[in-house]
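sorry for the late reply, my laptop died twice this morning and i had to redo everyting from scratch. anyway the thing you sent over, i finally got around to it. pasting the sequence first so we're on the same page, its 394 residues, then the predicted structure underneath. double check i copied it right bc i was rushing
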Amino acid sequence: MNDFPPDARPETKTVHVPRPVIEGSSPISMPIYQTSGFVFDDPALMAESMGRPDGAYVYGRYSNPTVRALEEAVAGLEGGTAAIATGSGMGAINLVLLGLLKPGDHLVAQRSLYGGTAAMLNELVGRFGFTVTYVPENDPAALRAAVRPETRLVYLETISNPMTLVADLPGMCQVARELGILSVVDNTFATPLLGRPFEHGADVVLHSTTKYLSGHTDVVGGIAVFADAGLYEKVWHFAIELGASADPFAAWLTLRGLQTLALRMERHCSNAHLLATRLAGHPAVTAVHWPGLPSHPSYELAGKLLSGFGGVFSFDLAGGREAGERFMKSVRLALLAPSLGGVETLVLHPATTSHRALSAEELRRSGIGEGTVRIAVGIEHPEDLWADVAQALA
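ok and here's the structure:
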Protein backbone atom coordinates (compact mmCIF):
# COMPACT_ATOMS: atom_id res chain seq x y z
CA MET A 1 0.00 0.00 0.00
CA ASN A 2 0.99 3.64 -0.31
CA ASP A 3 3.61 5.10 2.01
CA PHE A 4 2.81 8.82 2.00
CA PRO A 5 5.25 11.34 3.38
CA PRO A 6 3.78 12.66 6.65
CA ASP A 7 3.20 16.13 5.21
CA ALA A 8 1.39 14.99 2.04
CA ARG A 9 -1.54 17.31 1.37
CA PRO A 10 -5.10 16.07 0.72
CA GLU A 11 -4.88 17.06 -2.95
CA THR A 12 -1.98 14.61 -3.32
CA LYS A 13 -3.66 11.85 -1.34
CA THR A 14 -6.71 11.91 -3.62
CA VAL A 15 -4.47 11.04 -6.59
CA HIS A 16 -2.35 8.34 -4.93
CA VAL A 17 -5.05 6.00 -3.66
CA PRO A 18 -4.04 2.72 -1.94
CA ARG A 19 -3.11 -0.20 -4.16
CA PRO A 20 -1.88 -3.72 -3.39
CA VAL A 21 1.68 -4.95 -3.77
CA ILE A 22 1.84 -8.12 -5.89
CA GLU A 23 5.17 -10.01 -5.83
CA GLY A 24 7.33 -6.92 -5.66
CA SER A 25 5.29 -4.64 -7.91
CA SER A 26 1.86 -3.08 -7.87
CA PRO A 27 -0.74 -1.94 -10.41
CA ILE A 28 -1.07 1.78 -11.07
CA SER A 29 -4.86 1.54 -10.79
CA MET A 30 -6.52 -0.39 -7.98
CA PRO A 31 -8.03 -3.59 -9.50
CA ILE A 32 -11.64 -4.64 -9.05
CA TYR A 33 -11.89 -7.74 -6.88
CA GLN A 34 -15.33 -8.76 -8.14
CA THR A 35 -15.76 -11.84 -6.00
CA SER A 36 -18.22 -12.81 -3.30
CA GLY A 37 -15.67 -14.73 -1.24
CA PHE A 38 -12.12 -16.00 -0.81
CA VAL A 39 -10.62 -19.51 -0.63
CA PHE A 40 -8.53 -20.74 2.33
CA ASP A 41 -6.11 -23.62 2.86
CA ASP A 42 -6.14 -23.15 6.64
CA PRO A 43 -9.48 -23.58 8.47
CA ALA A 44 -8.12 -21.92 11.62
CA LEU A 45 -7.09 -18.80 9.67
CA MET A 46 -10.52 -18.61 8.06
CA ALA A 47 -12.27 -18.88 11.43
CA GLU A 48 -10.01 -16.25 12.99
CA SER A 49 -10.39 -13.83 10.09
CA MET A 50 -14.18 -13.82 10.30
CA GLY A 51 -14.00 -12.10 13.68
CA ARG A 52 -11.44 -9.40 12.85
CA PRO A 53 -11.83 -6.28 10.70
CA ASP A 54 -8.11 -6.44 9.86
CA GLY A 55 -8.01 -10.17 9.18
CA ALA A 56 -7.62 -11.99 5.89
CA TYR A 57 -10.35 -11.45 3.32
CA VAL A 58 -13.14 -13.99 3.81
CA TYR A 59 -16.47 -12.87 2.42
CA GLY A 60 -17.67 -9.79 0.55
CA ARG A 61 -19.99 -8.70 3.34
CA TYR A 62 -17.02 -8.62 5.72
CA SER A 63 -14.31 -7.08 3.56
CA ASN A 64 -12.94 -6.88 0.03
CA PRO A 65 -9.58 -5.56 -1.25
CA THR A 66 -11.15 -2.93 -3.53
CA VAL A 67 -13.57 -1.80 -0.84
CA ARG A 68 -10.81 -1.69 1.76
CA ALA A 69 -8.70 0.48 -0.56
CA LEU A 70 -11.55 2.97 -0.67
CA GLU A 71 -11.93 2.82 3.11
CA GLU A 72 -8.22 3.46 3.61
CA ALA A 73 -8.19 6.28 1.06
CA VAL A 74 -11.09 8.18 2.64
CA ALA A 75 -9.89 7.52 6.19
CA GLY A 76 -6.52 8.94 5.19
CA LEU A 77 -8.11 12.01 3.60
CA GLU A 78 -10.22 12.72 6.67
CA GLY A 79 -7.43 11.99 9.13
CA GLY A 80 -9.36 9.12 10.71
CA THR A 81 -8.21 5.74 11.99
CA ALA A 82 -10.41 3.47 9.86
CA ALA A 83 -13.58 3.50 7.78
CA ILE A 84 -16.52 1.32 6.77
CA ALA A 85 -17.87 1.69 3.23
CA THR A 86 -21.58 1.05 2.68
CA GLY A 87 -24.01 0.58 -0.16
CA SER A 88 -25.45 4.11 0.14
CA GLY A 89 -25.14 7.33 2.10
CA MET A 90 -28.24 6.47 4.11
CA GLY A 91 -26.64 3.07 4.73
CA ALA A 92 -23.70 4.83 6.39
CA ILE A 93 -26.01 7.06 8.46
CA ASN A 94 -28.15 4.15 9.62
CA LEU A 95 -25.11 1.99 10.32
CA VAL A 96 -23.75 4.59 12.73
CA LEU A 97 -27.06 5.45 14.40
CA LEU A 98 -28.18 1.85 14.85
CA GLY A 99 -24.69 0.68 15.72
CA LEU A 100 -24.19 3.25 18.47
CA LEU A 101 -27.68 3.76 19.92
CA LYS A 102 -30.14 1.51 21.71
CA PRO A 103 -33.87 1.95 22.45
CA GLY A 104 -34.48 4.71 24.96
CA ASP A 105 -31.34 6.65 24.08
CA HIS A 106 -31.50 10.38 23.40
CA LEU A 107 -29.64 12.24 20.69
CA VAL A 108 -29.30 15.91 19.81
CA ALA A 109 -29.39 16.94 16.14
CA GLN A 110 -29.11 20.25 14.37
CA ARG A 111 -32.36 21.66 13.01
CA SER A 112 -31.26 22.07 9.40
CA LEU A 113 -30.74 18.52 8.14
CA TYR A 114 -30.83 16.50 4.95
CA GLY A 115 -34.40 15.32 4.46
CA GLY A 116 -33.48 11.63 4.43
CA THR A 117 -31.71 12.01 7.77
CA ALA A 118 -34.62 13.91 9.29
CA ALA A 119 -37.08 11.28 8.07
CA MET A 120 -34.92 8.48 9.49
CA LEU A 121 -34.70 10.19 12.88
CA ASN A 122 -38.51 10.37 12.94
CA GLU A 123 -38.63 6.68 12.04
CA LEU A 124 -36.24 5.79 14.86
CA VAL A 125 -38.34 7.74 17.34
CA GLY A 126 -41.49 5.87 16.36
CA ARG A 127 -39.98 2.44 15.84
CA PHE A 128 -37.28 2.17 18.51
CA GLY A 129 -38.22 4.71 21.13
CA PHE A 130 -35.28 7.02 20.59
CA THR A 131 -35.79 10.65 21.53
CA VAL A 132 -34.37 13.58 19.58
CA THR A 133 -33.89 17.23 20.52
CA TYR A 134 -33.18 19.72 17.75
CA VAL A 135 -30.91 22.73 18.31
CA PRO A 136 -29.27 25.35 16.08
CA GLU A 137 -26.10 24.10 14.42
CA ASN A 138 -24.05 27.00 15.80
CA ASP A 139 -25.18 27.14 19.44
CA PRO A 140 -23.01 25.14 21.88
CA ALA A 141 -24.99 26.55 24.81
CA ALA A 142 -28.22 25.13 23.37
CA LEU A 143 -26.51 21.77 22.93
CA ARG A 144 -25.30 21.79 26.51
CA ALA A 145 -28.81 22.63 27.75
CA ALA A 146 -30.35 19.84 25.65
CA VAL A 147 -28.13 17.04 26.96
CA ARG A 148 -29.75 14.55 29.34
CA PRO A 149 -28.35 11.60 31.31
CA GLU A 150 -29.46 9.28 28.47
CA THR A 151 -27.94 11.43 25.69
CA ARG A 152 -25.46 9.43 23.65
CA LEU A 153 -24.83 11.34 20.44
CA VAL A 154 -24.93 14.73 18.70
CA TYR A 155 -25.53 14.77 14.94
CA LEU A 156 -24.27 17.63 12.74
CA GLU A 157 -23.67 18.53 9.09
CA THR A 158 -20.57 20.56 8.19
CA ILE A 159 -22.66 22.37 5.55
CA SER A 160 -26.37 21.67 5.84
CA ASN A 161 -28.63 20.48 3.05
CA PRO A 162 -30.12 22.54 1.44
CA MET A 163 -29.78 25.84 3.38
CA THR A 164 -25.96 25.58 3.56
CA LEU A 165 -25.74 26.55 7.23
CA VAL A 166 -22.29 25.83 8.65
CA ALA A 167 -22.05 23.99 11.96
CA ASP A 168 -19.88 25.38 14.73
CA LEU A 169 -17.85 22.18 14.83
CA PRO A 170 -15.23 23.35 17.36
CA GLY A 171 -17.86 24.59 19.81
CA MET A 172 -20.36 21.78 19.40
CA CYS A 173 -17.78 18.96 19.44
CA GLN A 174 -16.08 20.43 22.49
CA VAL A 175 -19.35 20.41 24.44
CA ALA A 176 -20.00 16.83 23.33
CA ARG A 177 -16.55 15.74 24.46
CA GLU A 178 -16.85 17.52 27.80
CA LEU A 179 -20.17 15.78 28.47
CA GLY A 180 -19.00 12.36 27.29
CA ILE A 181 -21.23 12.03 24.22
CA LEU A 182 -20.22 11.15 20.68
CA SER A 183 -20.24 13.68 17.84
CA VAL A 184 -21.16 12.50 14.33
CA VAL A 185 -20.67 14.88 11.39
CA ASP A 186 -21.97 14.50 7.83
CA ASN A 187 -19.19 16.04 5.72
CA THR A 188 -20.72 15.29 2.30
CA PHE A 189 -21.21 18.89 1.14
CA ALA A 190 -17.77 20.01 2.28
CA THR A 191 -15.70 16.93 1.36
CA PRO A 192 -12.37 16.36 3.13
CA LEU A 193 -10.90 19.14 1.00
CA LEU A 194 -13.09 21.95 2.37
CA GLY A 195 -13.96 20.74 5.88
CA ARG A 196 -11.97 18.79 8.49
CA PRO A 197 -14.35 17.60 11.26
CA PHE A 198 -11.80 15.41 13.05
CA GLU A 199 -9.56 18.43 13.56
CA HIS A 200 -12.42 20.02 15.53
CA GLY A 201 -13.09 17.03 17.75
CA ALA A 202 -15.59 14.87 15.82
CA ASP A 203 -15.75 11.15 16.59
CA VAL A 204 -17.35 9.91 13.35
CA VAL A 205 -17.43 11.53 9.90
CA LEU A 206 -19.96 10.45 7.27
CA HIS A 207 -20.13 10.84 3.50
CA SER A 208 -22.53 9.94 0.80
CA THR A 209 -19.88 8.79 -1.67
CA THR A 210 -22.62 9.06 -4.29
CA LYS A 211 -21.86 12.76 -4.30
CA TYR A 212 -18.50 14.52 -4.64
CA LEU A 213 -16.17 11.66 -3.74
CA SER A 214 -17.24 9.58 -6.75
CA GLY A 215 -18.25 12.70 -8.64
CA HIS A 216 -19.75 11.32 -11.85
CA THR A 217 -23.36 10.37 -10.96
CA ASP A 218 -22.70 6.69 -11.64
CA VAL A 219 -22.33 5.39 -8.07
CA VAL A 220 -24.55 4.95 -5.03
CA GLY A 221 -22.48 4.55 -1.88
CA GLY A 222 -21.60 5.82 1.56
CA ILE A 223 -18.80 5.68 4.11
CA ALA A 224 -18.34 6.16 7.85
CA VAL A 225 -14.89 7.20 9.12
CA PHE A 226 -13.86 6.79 12.76
CA ALA A 227 -11.36 8.67 14.88
CA ASP A 228 -11.05 5.86 17.42
CA ALA A 229 -10.09 2.28 16.55
CA GLY A 230 -12.21 0.81 19.34
CA LEU A 231 -15.33 2.62 18.16
CA TYR A 232 -14.62 1.50 14.60
CA GLU A 233 -14.33 -2.16 15.64
CA LYS A 234 -17.57 -1.96 17.62
CA VAL A 235 -19.49 -0.62 14.63
CA TRP A 236 -17.73 -3.01 12.21
CA HIS A 237 -19.12 -6.03 14.07
CA PHE A 238 -22.59 -4.54 13.73
CA ALA A 239 -21.95 -3.67 10.07
CA ILE A 240 -21.29 -7.26 9.02
CA GLU A 241 -24.60 -8.31 10.56
CA LEU A 242 -26.52 -5.33 9.13
CA GLY A 243 -25.32 -6.18 5.64
CA ALA A 244 -25.10 -2.67 4.18
CA SER A 245 -21.74 -3.46 2.58
CA ALA A 246 -20.32 -1.60 -0.41
CA ASP A 247 -20.06 -3.33 -3.79
CA PRO A 248 -16.51 -3.72 -5.19
CA PHE A 249 -17.36 -2.19 -8.55
CA ALA A 250 -18.98 0.85 -6.90
CA ALA A 251 -15.91 1.16 -4.66
CA TRP A 252 -13.65 1.03 -7.70
CA LEU A 253 -15.64 3.74 -9.49
CA THR A 254 -15.45 5.88 -6.35
CA LEU A 255 -11.68 5.45 -6.15
CA ARG A 256 -11.40 6.50 -9.79
CA GLY A 257 -13.54 9.57 -9.17
CA LEU A 258 -11.66 10.44 -6.01
CA GLN A 259 -8.49 11.08 -7.98
CA THR A 260 -9.97 14.20 -9.61
CA LEU A 261 -11.76 15.48 -6.49
CA ALA A 262 -9.44 18.44 -5.94
CA LEU A 263 -9.76 19.70 -9.51
CA ARG A 264 -13.52 19.25 -9.54
CA MET A 265 -14.06 21.01 -6.22
CA GLU A 266 -12.16 24.07 -7.41
CA ARG A 267 -14.53 24.39 -10.38
CA HIS A 268 -17.67 23.56 -8.37
CA CYS A 269 -16.83 26.31 -5.87
CA SER A 270 -15.85 28.95 -8.41
CA ASN A 271 -18.96 28.30 -10.52
CA ALA A 272 -21.15 28.47 -7.40
CA HIS A 273 -19.56 31.80 -6.48
CA LEU A 274 -20.42 33.31 -9.85
CA LEU A 275 -24.02 32.04 -9.85
CA ALA A 276 -24.73 32.90 -6.21
CA THR A 277 -23.33 36.41 -6.57
CA ARG A 278 -25.36 37.18 -9.69
CA LEU A 279 -28.54 35.60 -8.34
CA ALA A 280 -28.25 37.71 -5.20
CA GLY A 281 -28.77 40.79 -7.36
CA HIS A 282 -31.57 39.41 -9.54
CA PRO A 283 -35.04 40.95 -9.08
CA ALA A 284 -36.80 37.55 -9.24
CA VAL A 285 -34.77 36.22 -6.29
CA THR A 286 -35.56 37.17 -2.70
CA ALA A 287 -32.67 35.35 -0.99
CA VAL A 288 -29.60 33.26 -1.82
CA HIS A 289 -28.37 30.70 0.70
CA TRP A 290 -24.64 30.18 0.09
CA PRO A 291 -22.08 30.59 2.89
CA GLY A 292 -19.71 32.45 0.60
CA LEU A 293 -22.00 35.49 0.54
CA PRO A 294 -21.60 38.14 3.29
CA SER A 295 -25.40 38.14 3.70
CA HIS A 296 -25.41 34.47 4.75
CA PRO A 297 -25.70 33.85 8.52
CA SER A 298 -22.78 31.40 8.41
CA TYR A 299 -20.45 33.64 6.39
CA GLU A 300 -17.99 34.46 9.18
CA LEU A 301 -17.96 30.95 10.61
CA ALA A 302 -17.50 29.43 7.15
CA GLY A 303 -14.52 31.69 6.56
CA LYS A 304 -12.89 30.37 9.73
CA LEU A 305 -13.67 26.66 9.35
CA LEU A 306 -13.76 25.94 5.62
CA SER A 307 -11.20 26.26 2.84
CA GLY A 308 -14.00 26.81 0.31
CA PHE A 309 -17.74 27.45 0.40
CA GLY A 310 -19.00 24.48 -1.60
CA GLY A 311 -20.77 23.88 -4.87
CA VAL A 312 -24.37 23.57 -3.66
CA PHE A 313 -26.70 26.37 -2.64
CA SER A 314 -30.36 27.25 -2.62
CA PHE A 315 -32.27 30.40 -3.50
CA ASP A 316 -35.81 31.66 -2.94
CA LEU A 317 -37.94 32.89 -5.80
CA ALA A 318 -40.38 35.76 -5.32
CA GLY A 319 -43.26 33.87 -6.95
CA GLY A 320 -43.26 30.90 -4.54
CA ARG A 321 -43.91 27.35 -5.71
CA GLU A 322 -45.31 28.43 -9.07
CA ALA A 323 -42.14 30.38 -9.82
CA GLY A 324 -39.99 27.47 -8.68
CA GLU A 325 -41.79 25.00 -10.93
CA ARG A 326 -41.61 27.43 -13.85
CA PHE A 327 -37.86 27.86 -13.31
CA MET A 328 -37.17 24.13 -13.20
CA LYS A 329 -39.22 23.54 -16.34
CA SER A 330 -37.36 26.33 -18.14
CA VAL A 331 -33.72 25.39 -17.56
CA ARG A 332 -32.08 23.79 -20.57
CA LEU A 333 -28.48 23.08 -19.57
CA ALA A 334 -29.15 22.33 -15.91
CA LEU A 335 -30.94 19.04 -15.31
CA LEU A 336 -33.97 18.45 -13.10
CA ALA A 337 -32.73 15.47 -11.09
CA PRO A 338 -32.00 14.30 -7.54
CA SER A 339 -28.56 14.05 -5.94
CA LEU A 340 -25.55 16.36 -6.34
CA GLY A 341 -21.78 16.38 -6.63
CA GLY A 342 -21.52 15.20 -10.25
CA VAL A 343 -19.91 17.11 -13.09
CA GLU A 344 -23.29 18.26 -14.43
CA THR A 345 -25.48 20.95 -12.83
CA LEU A 346 -28.67 19.67 -11.19
CA VAL A 347 -31.69 21.52 -9.81
CA LEU A 348 -34.59 20.39 -7.64
CA HIS A 349 -37.41 21.67 -5.43
CA PRO A 350 -36.56 20.53 -1.86
CA ALA A 351 -40.06 20.86 -0.41
CA THR A 352 -41.43 18.24 -2.81
CA THR A 353 -38.35 16.04 -3.35
CA SER A 354 -35.36 15.73 -0.97
CA HIS A 355 -37.35 17.04 2.02
CA ARG A 356 -40.82 15.79 1.04
CA ALA A 357 -41.12 13.72 4.25
CA LEU A 358 -40.98 16.83 6.45
CA SER A 359 -44.14 18.45 7.75
CA ALA A 360 -44.98 22.07 6.93
CA GLU A 361 -43.72 23.06 10.37
CA GLU A 362 -40.47 21.13 9.94
CA LEU A 363 -39.92 22.74 6.54
CA ARG A 364 -40.52 26.18 8.04
CA ARG A 365 -38.15 25.45 10.92
CA SER A 366 -35.50 24.38 8.41
CA GLY A 367 -35.94 27.57 6.39
CA ILE A 368 -37.19 25.78 3.28
CA GLY A 369 -39.92 27.72 1.49
CA GLU A 370 -42.37 26.94 -1.30
CA GLY A 371 -40.19 28.90 -3.69
CA THR A 372 -36.86 27.44 -2.57
CA VAL A 373 -34.79 25.88 -5.36
CA ARG A 374 -31.58 23.93 -4.72
CA ILE A 375 -28.88 24.02 -7.35
CA ALA A 376 -25.93 21.63 -7.32
CA VAL A 377 -23.47 23.46 -9.53
CA GLY A 378 -21.47 21.38 -11.99
CA ILE A 379 -18.18 22.05 -13.76
CA GLU A 380 -19.56 23.49 -17.03
CA HIS A 381 -18.34 26.88 -18.27
CA PRO A 382 -19.70 29.42 -15.78
CA GLU A 383 -21.06 31.81 -18.42
CA ASP A 384 -23.01 29.00 -20.06
CA LEU A 385 -24.52 28.16 -16.68
CA TRP A 386 -25.43 31.76 -16.01
CA ALA A 387 -27.02 32.14 -19.44
CA ASP A 388 -29.19 29.13 -18.71
CA VAL A 389 -30.22 30.34 -15.25
CA ALA A 390 -30.90 33.86 -16.52
CA GLN A 391 -33.15 32.70 -19.38
CA ALA A 392 -35.06 30.42 -17.03
CA LEU A 393 -35.65 33.30 -14.60
CA ALA A 394 -36.76 35.51 -17.48
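The mean pLDDT is 94.
thats about all i looked at so far, will dig more tmrw
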